[in-house]
Amino acid sequence: MMFSKACEYGIRAAVYIALQSLDGRRVSVTEIAEEIDSPIAFTAKILQQLTRNNIVNSVKGPTGGFEIDREEMDNVKLNMIVKAIDGDKIYKGCGLGLKECDAQKPCPLHDKFVDIRTDLSRMLKSTSLFELATGLEIGMTFLKR
User: Fold this and answer.
1) Are strands 57-59 and 65-67 parallel, antiparallel or unpaired?
2) Which of 8, 13, 55, 84 is the most exposed place for a label (fewest CB within 10 A)?
3) Is the separation of the CB atoms in 16 and 142 below 8 Å?
4) What Pfam families is this protein classified in (predicted)?
5) Per-residue pLDDT tens for 73-114?
């Protein structure tokens, strides 16, 4: 897969939180971990990164949990979630994983990979969390593998 496991879980967690927020619900770490089929401690760490990067809101207290404001769902783009968890390594480095690969010493895939990365970047920057959540609302099974 193109994204790290943590990033995949982060995307799925953000989508689940968005879906629940659209129904006016806050969700707990436990519920999210169960829904995305991820260990609780790992999920908590991912949610911490999403909160720190202002992708989701964490509300403390007995009625607390995670939520996302409806307006924010339009502003949060997929690239923001990827950057919060994986940084920008998806746009850098060699497509074959070689250490010595750049424009000066390109691997056989270097130039082809530049186009793929450009398209990927465009797609990630243009896809909102709202779009993702509402597009996947029909088939909730996608969250679990």
Assistant:
1) antiparallel
2) 8
3) no
4) Rrf2 (PF02082)
5) 999 999 999 999 999 888 777 878 888 888 888 888 888 888
Contact (CB, 8 A) for 9 and 36 = yes
Q: How far is Cα 87 from Cα 63, in angstroms, rounded to an integer? A: 32
Domains and CATH numbers, the chain: 5-87+127-138 (1.10.10.10)
Residues 6 or more apart whose CB falls under 8 angstroms from that of 32 comprise 13, 16, 17, 38, 43, 47, 66
pTM metric for this prediction? 0.86
Closest CA to 10 of 71, 52, 62: 52
